[in-house]
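Task 17 of the worksheet. Students: predict the tertiary structure of the chain below and write it out as structure tokens. Keep your answer in the requested format; marks are given for formatting as well as content.
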Amino acid sequence: MNVVLTLFWLALGLVLLVKGSDVFVLASAGIARYFKVPSLIIGMTIMAFGTSAPEAFIGVRAALDDTSSLAMGNVIGSDIFNLIFIIGLAAMLTPMAISFKTIAKNYAVAISGPILLLLMMVYFDDAIPTMGAVFLLVVFACYLFIIIQSTLKKRKEGFELEEVVAEKTQSLKRSVLVAILGLGMIILGGELTVHHAVHITELLGMSTRVIGLTIVAIGTSLPELVIVFMASKRKENELAIGNIIGSSIFNIMFVLGLSGVISPLPIENGLIFDLTFLLGASVLFLIFILTKKKLSRLEGFAMVVSYLLYLSYVIWWY
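Model answer:
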């Protein structure tokens, strides 16, 4: 099978992943509303899972195929692409005013993810064992519990919360059938993506980590790209940033945690550099917000250029 045909099947897999996650989320929200699950819970569970569903299913499938390095590259690459390129490009189009106070707690958790992962990589020799993966899942569960409890408390105190899904609901039967269809698309997309991503590494002599950091990471970040640009266009900047922060937490804590429980996460050469770059970008983003409480077009341009330089370095030097 030549490279062009393999790239076609890989692209098809990514399309199925992204579209399938969208279909699955909307249908699942319809089911949840049928059983009168609060919109808040839907938003913080189903919606949060939805934008990171491609990374989650690729992580699980890669772990089952004993290619967890693809999952590692995909998660780290997605977080880098989301934070630096997507936010940077959005700021280039429309300067983004952001109040750090509203995102401080979640952003602290988001930064702690790469730090924990980096410490584990330094401590363990060849791979992060099941124990480390379980720890990530426990941290994620605690974070989710605290956030949900805190927001429910605000609701009881009379705060108005924005609805995260449309009021209109489908019939239960239709929602279930559509959810099954979406899940099937995700599973098939995950199969195609992992299989052909690994095949590309064999054809081009590249590591699965590099493929995960580049092609697969960009492809699986399309849901975040759409959400951020829609929010930015409506000047809902904190919603855009919140989606990226939530996705980052979900990717590292849940996706890598789940993948690592199935199969130990290998520590390949270069991953420490990738994580260090992600942390550096996170700090730079924080400085931009704290100094002017907004991201200007120039700062957005600097972020995009930084990502392109990083991408070039990864492709040509690894």
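Marker's comment: The CA atoms of residues 51 and 223 lie 5 Å apart. Strands lie at 96-97, 127-128, 265-266, 294-295.
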